[in-house]
Amino acid sequence: MKQPCVYMLASQEYGTLYVGVTSDLIARLYQHRTGGVKGFTARYGVNRLVRFEQFETMLDAISREKQLKRWHRQWKINLIESENPRWADLAPSLGLPPLPSP
């Protein structure tokens, strides 16, 4: 899936949230899930894809990422729940294996 997009990850339902941008969502998710991305997401176990938006250009995706990063936490939760009320991991619908059960 080589297309600019903004994605939101969560550690669990109502858990720690992360907003990122990428041009290859599948590859980026794989990095998050296998520990290839050091830092915040690895430290807090944030690897469940709960929302993503695709864009025509990377500039549009970066602009949206910056907007979402300025949002209050509750606004982000409301956005996630507007399309994914159960906080399901969306990565399997993109072809990645499901996360192991806790």
TrEMBL record:
It holds the Pfam family GIY-YIG. Belongs to the UPF0213 family. It comes from the Bacteria. Gene3D superfamilies: GIY-YIG endonuclease. It comes from Sphingomonas hankyongi. InterPro entries: GIY-YIG_endonuc (IPR000305), GIY-YIG_endonuc_sf (IPR035901), UPF0213_domain (IPR050190). This is GIY-YIG nuclease family protein. Residues 2-79 form the GIY-YIG domain.
